[in-house]
Structure formats: C-alpha cells, structure tokens
Amino acid sequence: MKFFIDTANLEQIKEAQALGVLDGVTTNPSLMAKEGITGKNNILKHYVDICKIVDGDVSAEVISTDFESMVKEGEILAELHDQIVVKIPMIKDGVKALKYFSDNQIRTNCTLVFSAGQALLAAKAGATYVSPFIGRLDDISSDGLNLIAEIRHIYDNYAFETQILAASIRHTMHVIDCAKIGADVMTGPLSSIEGLLKHPLTDSGLAKFLADYQKGN
Ligand code: G3P
After folding, report:
1. Distance CA 127, CA 85 (A)
2. 0.90 exceeded by pTM
C-alpha cells in the first residue's frame, strides 16, 4: 500500500518524507488556501516546491470545469515537473479530460468520487488514480469503506489498472481498514500516518527494557 500525505503544508510533508514511508502527496484548492497559497503563480511554484521534497507523485488539481480549459490547465500542471499527476473532478467534462490525458500519456487522479459507478467511469476513461472520499461519506452516515470494497471488486473483475486512492482519510482505522480491503493508496493527514506507530504496550515494554538495562549497569 502506498502512503500519500494529504496536505500543502511543506513542514508536514518534510516530516512525513523524513519518516521514510512517504510515496506521494495530494493537494486540493482548499488545502492550498489553508496554507495561504493564493494566485496562479504562487500555486504553481508551491507544487514545484512540494515535488522537490517528496520522492513520488504529487497531485495538482485543475480549477476549470470545461473540457478545453481543463486540458490547457492540466498540460501546464503536467509540464511543471515529471512527478505531477493532474487531478480532475468527476464531472462529464472531467471524464472527457481523463480520456484525453490518458491518450496523451499524462497521469491523472480523478477526484470527488462518491460512488462505484463514478469509479467505473474513471477507470474506463483511463484514470491513473481514482479518489473515493471515504471520510466525507462517513460524515453523512454512508459507508465509505464499503465504497472502497465495491470499487476493489469491480476493478479486480476486469483487471482495471486504475489505482484506488482512498482519500478523505481521517484516522488510523481508516488506513488499516483500507489496507485490509486492498486499496492501492491511502492519502491522509500526517496524524493518520504517525498514529500507526502508537501502542501503549510498545511504550511500557520499551520503558521496562531500558529500566532493566540500567539496573544491570
Ligand atoms: O484527498 C481528499 C481530501 O483532501 C478531502 O479530505 O478531510 O477534506 O474530507 P477531507
């Protein structure tokens, strides 16, 4: 399972990269705004800064919603760095754009996916990654993990190569459950990665080992 971090915060990206388990970064316009990154040129520069930190794929989202503009915008994003994956929303023109980019060897991440049907369309259009938002489904009393399982089943039926990127991950149990189901990638906050480290028996066991070592020296 690949681990992506879902943030535009450079310090958190550096911290996850330093842990040695980071495979990529996802961003979106809200995450950019949260870091105070505004204006086209600043946003483009920020994507390049992220690519310099992480050794892996970096999703950069288009703002346009019509086919021609998405293509233009996506081509500019893809030109920025060979690690860039163009993030396209699951709308009708977005499906056309996914197909265009797939035909032109530009990698894509289809975002804002909330149903198995949308995920099937994204795979048919040749998306590199599909991003089902599991946390946002859970927020409205829908079962986000069940969606991951449905997509896994469908993609396996037809050997689709589109990778399931479980997004809107909120906590460590989402990560573990997605790994059990067989999501190819998870993207979440730094806390969802570092939270995997924690176990009270590890802490108490280590404290005892160190105390016993001290007794003998
Ligand atoms: O990767 C998608 C993600 O950014 C959405 O997460 O927490 O805003 O639902 P969230």
Report:
1. 10
2. yes
